[in-house]
Structure formats: structure tokens, C-alpha cells
From TrEMBL:
This is MCRI2 protein. Belongs to the MCRIP family. The keyword Transmembrane does not apply. It comes from Chunga burmeisteri (Black-legged seriema). It comes from the Eukaryota. GO terms for cellular component: cytoplasmic stress granule; nucleus. It holds the Pfam family FAM195. It is found in: Cytoplasm, Stress granule; Nucleus. Signal peptide: none annotated. Keywords: Cytoplasm, Nucleus.
Length: 100
């Protein structure tokens, strides 16, 4: 199903600045095969996560094994993974701020 569209309400009844319409990119259409593939990968990953969580309590069980680096790279000792959702939110807000 298509993603919901964002709706912005006017602040203090002010009309938004009229900008010339730009040619928008066509909306993405997902085929049934695409949705089946996404569902398959999602469900398979959920099973792996459940098996990993369940396997921690029972030693010697067969199933997925989580990779853990034995000798971590010292160059990555201060590495902090990025919060991609937060980054996208900041990018979106910066674009909104620049347009107003």
C-alpha cells in the first residue's frame, strides 16, 4: 500500500508561499512479487532473531550463530553507529526550514 501523504496545517492562518510546481517523480508502484519478497525476508529475519534469542539460554542447540569479532579493529574503537531514522528526520526538517 502507498505511504501516507504528509499534511501540514497553516500556522496562524498564513497562506503558504506559492512556489512554481515542479515535476514530481512518479510514485513508486510495488508489484505483488516485490511485496511477497519483502514479506519473506521480514518473516525469515524474525525467525532468525527468535532463534538467536532462544538459543542464548540453551547451549549446544543448532541454529543461527551471531558473529562476534574476536579481535576488534582498534581503529574502530570509537565508532558510533548512525541512527538512520534520526538522520533522515534532521534532513527533512532542514529542507522544510530552508523552504520557509
Amino acid at each position: 500500500s502507498p505511504a501516507p501523504k504528509l499534511v501540514f496545517n497553516r500556522v496562524n492562518g498564513k497562506r503558504p508561499q506559492v512556489l512554481p510546481q515542479q515535476v514530481s517523480a512518479p510514485e513508486e508502484c510495488y508489484t505483488l512479487a516485490h511485496e511477497e519478497n519483502v514479506r519473506f525476508v521480514y518473516e525469515a529475519w524474525q525467525q532468525v532473531e527468535q532463534q538467536l534469542d532462544g538459543g542464548r539460554s540453551g547451549e549446544g542447540a543448532c541454529g543461527p550463530v551471531q558473529y562476534v569479532e574476536k579481535n576488534p579493529n582498534p581503529g574502530l574503537k570509537d565508532f558510533v553507529p548512525i541512527d538512520l531514522e534520526e538522520w533522515w528526520a534532521q534532513q527533512f526538517l532542514a529542507k522544510v526550514k530552508n523552504c520557509s
